[in-house]
Description:
Pfam family, one: DUF6526
Largest sheet: none
Protein name: ABC transporter permease
Keywords: Membrane, Transmembrane, Transmembrane helix
InterPro entries: DUF6526 (IPR045385)
Low-confidence stretches: none
Transmembrane segments: 15-39, 45-65
Amino acid sequence: MKVQNYVNHRRMHPLYHYFFSLLAVGLVVLSIMQLVSALKANDQVLPAVIFVLIAVIVVVIFLLIRTYPIKAQDRAIRAEENLRHFVLTQKLLDKKLTMGQIAALRFASDEEFPALCKKAAAERMTPDAIKKAVRSWRGDNFRI
């Protein structure tokens, strides 16, 4: 596996991010076209409305399928980084740090992690700025 860094750390799952998302968008577009066509022809409106509802349900499921695992991963990352900070400093992470900041801080090596945590909280650094500030990158190859 390639060594992870700021440039290549983002990961996409092609089946989800490209294939399934295009199918969901296509379903919504086609269902709306069908509804407009049915309304213009004043014919078979109920099946067209049902088709739109199914498309909306698919989009909601599509979003939830991604949201729930991310929430679970965020909880795990928060706990892992809080433990790592405690082991290194005997203090818990600053409560001012957002989940996005904590997720970005996970890429910092142990040597720079405590100082970068302080700086991120004090300066309200964005997650992207935190990642750019990491000098010794610590890869995370498990999150998509």
